[in-house]
Amino acid sequence: MSIVFNDINKSQGVFTRRAFLMGGLVAFGLFALGGRLAQLQILQGGKYTKMSAGNQFNFRVIPPPRGDILDRNGKMIAGNRPSFRVMIETNEVKDINSTLDQVSYILPQTVAMRRRILRDINQNKRSVPTLIAGDLSWEDFSKVSLYAADIPGVVADMDQLRAYYHGGAFSHVVGYVSKINATDMKIEEIKPDADINLLHHPSFRMGKQGIEKSYDNILRGTAGGSKMEVDAGGKVVGEDGDGSIPPKPGTDVTLTLDLDIQNRAMEAFGTDSGSAVMMNIHTGEVICMVSAPSFDPNLFVSGIPTKAYRLLADYERKPLLDKSVGSTFAPGSTFKMATALAILDAGIDPEEQVFCRGGYQSGNRFFRCHGVHGSVNMRNAHKFSCDTYFYAMCNRAGVDRIAKFSRKLGLGQAFEGFEIAGQKKGLIPDEQWKREWFNGSSRARHLDPKWHPGETLSVAIGQGYVNVSPLQLAVYAARIANGMKAVEPHLVRKVGDKVIDHTREYADLGIPKAHLDIVRGGMWAVSNEPGGTGRTNSQLDLGPNIQISGKTGTAQVRGYDKAGTRKAAEWKNKDHGLFVCFGPSDAPKYACAVVVEHGVAGGRFAAPKAREIMRLAMIKDPEIQKRIVGPVSTALDKAALERGEAAGASDMPNEGLPAETPPGD
């Protein structure tokens, strides 16, 4: 066979053109390939290096240890404890249900647990691990650790859980932490410094109440990350320590509260319901603030079962409510010092006598007193808690003047800068308030908006529209004892090592010292003279140098005609018992307010609790302790006695008095 070229030159030209075309295409391909390689290796080399490292390494969020909460002496109130847990890395698992089935052979799962795990997996990002079981015993954790390596995506490790070391003693003030909910997540995610991975981490907890909530960002800290090397299947084969970032722990917060006094207050309440607040009258430091009954905040850290929560929420004594700031009560006779200061401001002589026959007639209504006290002046009206005296005098001062002095002493207001939320202002009524409220409220528009004298009688003894919180009552007692400055309460002493300066200049109280001395003399008589409504149950028994001055109160919950008797059978219909005090009487340093919800009478139920709280505070105070153990100082006693004698300690006429005066408040 032979090839014959008819036109040699023509065929050679066609071949040359084809060869040139093919060569051009090859050259273009090589050029394009080289350009792409240059782009990948030179221009985008860093990007793909990172992607390669991402396939080789995983970064896992390390939640930071939450800052501790300490009492004023550095004793631990809230901290962190180790906890064993099991998690599932969903991005390393192909079949979730199969993996959970394998885990269930080691840790049995209920249907509810399985649903919870699957719900959390669906809600979380795939890069965020999901908790299968937490706070395991050592035995369960050991079993899981033994088999976890054979189950892809299952990790057994140690975590930290929030721990509250004194149960319910601090539950309302300190609050608690729990898992972040959907509402909180929406709020947190839009913050400019939000750490999304931390927010979705199964170990993350946020403050839900009290100091834990108010100082959440400070206590929370900054998350870290561990750089883990993985194989092609995503299984961890090691950790790159050099690439890991340690978390930054949260900052500690030191409170003004005293652990011992707080615990003593809870013991004093026992099963009773109510609140106690004690504070330093000069600095405003709150030394004790309890709400009873309480609850164990540890129940909320990992999630409280619905049935357990309902038991707390539905109990009539409301353990979940912070009664110190979130409840208001009629102050009863503890309000009489404010009324007395208004009477003095109106120019009425404190020695003017009022004869008590067991009540006071005003119009068509007879306002009862709890006893028959005979002729009493202002001082003895405090001592015997005679309502009749204040009924007779109050309208000469007027409700607006009473409201003015009540507010000066801290009642009916929320304290700006107080570190926990939930304060209720309560109510101190005056003529303007009634006009505005009765005209503006659809429920009260049919009622008379004019203020009537009979309403002032109820206000004068802390009843009627008057409502205050236990915190306000403590401030009220502190300002009476201080006598110069409108001191305000606070709870936080230090953040980290930085001492919080609360020594700002408080506003002047603006009440004449002479008037305050008269009122304080009456309070001294209540707790220290025979016949005083608080004498029996408020003695500290710390020697003649250390005495307290107080005022008892019994606040009516409902009309006695409706209850049938002052001592109602049902707990919810019983009167509230109150007691406010300060001490030592001659050189005041601490003030205390106690409210016993439905506690019948303040002298018998609230005063003993205040006595226990104040007594321990006096014993623990180094300066006062010297006076307790030292020689009797007649000079110090003389100042208190002279103040009481000058106000009329022994000048109560016997005329008209029964053989035994009823105890009243």
TrEMBL record:
Residues 62-239 form the Penicillin-binding protein dimerisation domain. Residues 274-614 form the Penicillin-binding protein transpeptidase domain. The chain crosses the membrane at residues 20-38. The keyword Transmembrane helix applies. Keywords: Carboxypeptidase, Cell inner membrane, Cell membrane, Cell shape, Cell wall biogenesis/degradation, Hydrolase, Membrane, Peptidoglycan synthesis, Protease, Transmembrane, Transmembrane helix. GO terms for molecular function: penicillin binding; peptidoglycan L,D-transpeptidase activity; serine-type D-Ala-D-Ala carboxypeptidase activity. It is a single-pass membrane protein. One of its GO terms (cellular component) is plasma membrane. It is found in: Cell membrane; Membrane. InterPro entries: Beta-lactam/transpept, Beta-lactam/transpept-like, PBP_dimer, PBP_dimer_sf, PCN-bd_Tpept, Penicillin-binding_protein_2. NCBIfam families: pbp2_mrdA. This is Penicillin-binding protein 2. The gene is mrdA.
